[in-house]
Structures are given as structure tokens and as C-alpha cells.
Amino acid sequence: MSNTAFITGATSGFGRATAIRMAEAGWKLVLTGRRSERLQELQQQLAEKTDVHILTLDVRDADAVKQAVAELPENFRDVTLLVNNAGLALGTEPAQDCDTEKWQRMIDTNISGLVTMTHALLPTLIAQGRGASVVNIGSIAGHWPYPGGNVYCGTKAFVEQFSYGLRADLAGTGVRVTNLAPGLAESEFTLVRTDGNQDAHDRLYEGAEPIQPEDIAETIYWIASLPPHLNVNQLEMMPASQSFGPFSISRKS
Ligand code: NDP
Ligand code: 8X3
């Protein structure tokens, strides 16, 4: 089997680190994101290691996703790994104060974009068969609610359940499916969530030894490189510094 990875959201964070890790291992890459310049820079950076095809693509644009997959160059059509990584959180307000446009953007990206991309690539992955993989980037937010998580948590719970459903439907095809659910990780995630608030980013990660994008990249590489008779259904990981809190109780005053 050839090794070609299709990674969404490769301009930053987990996606970018995963592209670099897979290139080091000699995988061919299809890299997507909305920021073309970053994709071009990464393509140049990896050129000595492997062949890279870049696609400036908004995963919310279903027609563009289908067209990009249908028109993949011959050399990149044998995709064996789909990393559904593109995603975002917007805002930390309680539900009653949220901007529903932000909610819709999270749903369109984290849910609709992910399922559209998956559907477009399933025939290719099934044709590759045994050893092919889908790694969906879920989150601890899909398992553990927290104030201000509302719709973001909901989208990641969807990613988990969709991953299981997909796995059920793909039984017998040899295509594996994993929900990889990281906890606190340092990337551009918090800047995006807070409209570029550098203080919020710095305060969240300071002294916490958060997960780094390279940690996620190594994990994805491991999942995709496992012998083809093995499937990691679910993998939740946190930095050692992160743990659980008590339930909150609102008392009568
Ligand atoms: P970053 O903000 O660093 O990276 C997000 C990536 O998603 C970027 O490459 C961005 O590319 C891409 N993206 C966002 N929206 C779109 C879109 N509409 N179309 C195409 N690409 C898009 O964050 P992370 O690396 O941390 O996040 C990656 C994934 O990991 C997300 O799904 C996130 O929810 C999840 N996650 C993050 C955690 C964390 O603590 N950081 C923990 C658990 C899960 P561009 O802007 O160029 O389009
Ligand atoms: C990102 C992790 O806990 O900030 O998915 O929602 S969290």
C-alpha cells in the first residue's frame, strides 16, 4: 500500500505538525486550509522530503470539497489516511449570551465540513482497503462539559459518535476509524477562540505544560502506522497537568 495522507487544517497547530511528521516518514501529502501562503510555505519546506499537493479550501464549502477530491492529481489519488483536523471554537460565553452566528460557524466547520470531507474521500479509502485510516480530531470537550463550551462541546461529541457510526458502516472494508480526543493543547486555538486575545492565550497555557502539536502529530503517526489488524477506536489524552474538577452545586442563598 502506498502512503498518502490527506490532512485538513494544515496551516497551523496539529495539522501542520502532522504534515511535518508524516513527511519525515516519507508519506505523500495533500494539505488543505484557507490560508494559501502558509500552505505554499509548508509545501516548500517539505519539498526535499516528499511530494506535497496543496489545496486552498474552506471545508464549509461542500461543492469545493467534492470538486477538490474529484480533481486530485493522479499522483495523489491513492489516499490511505484522512486526518479530519480542521476545526475551531469561537467564544467562551454562556449559551444565553452567545452569538448564534458563531455557533453556526462551529457547526458548519466542525460537523458539516468534517462529514462532507469524509464522504468525498470514502470511495478512495475503501478502494485502498486494509490499512487505510480516518483519524477524526475530537476533543475532551466532547466528553466533559464545561461552562462556555456549549456548542463547541456539542460538535466534538458529534465527532465521537460519527466516528463510531462510521466504523460500524465500514466493517469489513479494512478501513479504520479513530476519534482522537486531546485536552489542553497549545496552538492558535485560543487566539481563534478569543478573537486574537494574546493575554488569554498566554494565561491559559502559562505553567501548564500543555500538549504540543508535535505530541498530537506523533500520536496520529502511530495510529496510522499500526498493523492493519488493529483499530484504535478512541484515544483521549491530556497533559499530565490537567485533571478533573468537582460538579458545581448552585445553593439557595
Ligand atoms: P489551530 O487554530 O492552530 O488550527 C486549526 C486549523 O483548522 C488551521 O489550519 C485552520 O486553517 C483550519 N481551519 C479552521 N477552519 C477551517 C475551515 N473553515 N476550512 C478549512 N480549514 C479550517 O488549532 P488546533 O491545531 O489546536 O486545532 C486543530 C483541531 O484540534 C480542531 O478541530 C480543534 O477543535 C481540535 N482540538 C484542539 C485542542 C486544543 O486545545 N488546541 C484540543 C482538542 C481538540 P485556516 O485558518 O488556514 O483555514
Ligand atoms: C479543545 C479543548 O477543553 O479547550 O478542544 O475545549 S478545550
List keywords for this structure.
binds NADPH dihydro-nicotinamide-adenine-dinucleotide phosphate, alpha/beta, 253 residues, single chain
CATH architecture: 3-Layer(aba) Sandwich
Helix content: 40-55%
Q: Number of domains in the coordinates?
A: 1
Superfamily (CATH H level) name: NAD(P)-binding Rossmann-like Domain
Which of globular, elongated, flat, extended, rod-shaped describes the shape? globular
How would you briefly describe this protein structure?
The chain is an alpha/beta fold and 253 residues long. The protein is 42% helix and 14% strand.
Describe this structure in words.
The chain has a single domain (4-237), classed as Rossmann fold. The protein has helices at residues 13-24, 36-46, 62-70, 100-128, 150-169, 189-193, 198-205, 213-225, and strands at residues 4-7, 28-33, 52-56, 81-84, 133-137, 176-182, 234-237. It is globular. The protein starts with a strand and ends in a 16-residue tail after the last strand. It has 253 residues and is α/β, with parallel strands linked by helices. NADPH dihydro-nicotinamide-adenine-dinucleotide phosphate binds next to helix 1, helix 4 and helix 6.
How would you summarize the topology of this molecule?
Elements: E1 4-7, H1 13-24, E2 28-33, H2 36-46, E3 52-56, H3 62-70, E4 81-84, H4 100-128, E5 133-137, H5 150-169, E6 176-182, H6 189-193, H7 198-205, H8 213-225, E7 234-237
Parallel strand pairs: 1-2, 1-4, 2-3, 4-5, 5-6, 6-7
Helix pairs in contact: 1-8, 3-4, 4-5
The structure holds NADPH dihydro-nicotinamide-adenine-dinucleotide phosphate (NDP) and 2-hydroxyethylsulfonic acid.
